[in-house]
Design a protein that fits this description.
By secondary structure, the protein is α/β, with parallel strands linked by helices. The protein folds into two domains: 23-225, Glycosidases (TIM Barrel, Alpha-Beta Barrel), CATH 3.20.20; 245-352, Membrane-bound Lytic Murein Transglycosylase D, Chain A (Roll), CATH 3.10.350.10. An eight-stranded mixed β-barrel has the order 2-3-5-6-7-8-10-11. A two-stranded parallel sheet has the order 1-9. It is 35% helix and 21% strand. Helix 4 packs parallel to helix 5 (134-152) and helix 4 crosses helix 10 (294-301).
């Protein structure tokens, strides 16, 4: 009799724990679930035929980061995934610290993915916030999401870990954009977030899939991840304002002016016969070619075989070589640099991948 009561009590507690766990779990937005992965240059070359044979149905591909970085495997991943019949989503890693930068990154992302035909919602991956306030994060996110939608005509999704889905992103964003949540070591994510359901669930960053060397993020997606149509993205060229001249202001640098007008230090220096790009003077009038478009600048920087790095103030070739674990000579040869001691902020370098 005692054993029977003990066994019944044990069953009761197991049932109660299971019920409580279920009640506090975030539900998928639909009952239909698709197996997926998300990838970037970290995975290197991927055999998508093997990936498909392993049961993967959806692949999210990193396209860009910030306002000047294209993932070096973006186009290869996109073309090969499409060729093997996988459903494709594209994401951008957002680094903006204000709405102006968010707007610029949205235009850059849209330009990078122009010509592609994604099957799934475009994704915003915004996870490094530094000292931004919740209001700042909300405004930056909304600016990026709305501008990408305006440029591409495609719906979007927000990628977030469980902590930020609860504490960082606003209820307003949660009510407008579906959630792709990252939470590891659980069967289903916690419901303690601002969203009422998940459309994407990244459940581990240690997945092993045939066709991929090393580890890969594993995901599950609901049918709400799919776009209603997958027509090609066709963003109109985004030409900067027609400015024929610029008067140098106190505190200006040539690299800052180049970034402002979407051109390069070398182009401004060549157009104005400037021998020393570090030496410009307030009141000096510069001619600036503003006929280039964002898409043209992006295409100049796009190279599937190399990483594109934009030189920052204070960089040296030694630092950059160490950063990417390559030699100074390889950077010099690849970019035709005549004087390794003379590089300029704002210039783009190709780095062997």
């Amino acid at each position: 009799m005692f054993k029977k009561i003990t066994y019944t009590t044990l069953l009761f507690f197991i049932f109660s724990f299971t019920l409580i766990t279920y009640c506090f779990a975030l539900s998928p937005s639909t009952n239909t679930i698709y197996e997926g992965i998300d990838v970037s240059n970290w995975q290197g070359y991927i055999d998508y035929n093997e990936v498909k044979n392993a049961g993967i149905q959806i692949v999210y591909i990193k396209a860009s980061q910030g306002s000047n970085i294209i993932d070096p495997y973006f186009r290869t991943n996109y073309d090969n995934a499409k060729a093997n019949g996988l459903s494709v989503g594209l994401y951008h890693f957002l680094t903006a610290r204000n709405t102006r930068e968010a707007y610029d990154e949205a235009e850059y992302f849209a330009s990078v993915i122009s010509g592609t035909s994604p099957d799934c919602r475009l994704a915003m991956d915004f996870e490094n916030f530094d000292n931004l306030s919740r209001d700042d994060i909300d405004e930056i996110s909304r600016t990026f999401l709305e501008r990408v939608k305006e440029l591409t005509g495609k719906d979007l999704i927000i990628y977030s870990d469980a902590f930020n889905a609860r504490n960082t992103f606003s209820l307003e964003l949660a009510n407008t954009y579906p959630l792709w949540i990252a939470e590891y070591g659980v069967e289903t994510p916690s419901s303690d977030v601002n969203w009422s359901s998940w459309t994407g669930f990244q459940f581990t960053d240690m997945g092993i899939i045939r066709g991929i060397r090393g580890l890969v993020d594993r995901d599950r997606f609901t049918s709400d991840i799919f776009l209603s149509e997958n027509e090609a993205i066709n963003t109109s060229p985004n030409t900067t304002n027609k400015i024929e001249s610029y008067t140098v202001q106190r505190g200006n640098t040539l690299s800052g002016i180049a970034l402002r007008f979407g051109t390069t230090v070398a182009e401004i220096a060549g157009l104005n016969g400037i021998r020393n790009p570090n030496l410009i003077f307030p009141g000096e009038v510069l001619k600036i070619d503003t006929t280039r478009t964002l898409s043209q600048i992006t295409n100049d920087s796009y190279d599937t075989n190399h990483i594109i790095y934009t030189i920052k103030r204070g960089n040296t070739l030694t630092q950059i070589a160490r950063m990417f674990n390559v030699t100074i000579n390889s950077i010099v040869r690849l970019n035709g640099i005549r004087n390794p001691n003379l590089i300029f902020a704002g210039e783009r370098l190709r780095i062997n991948n």
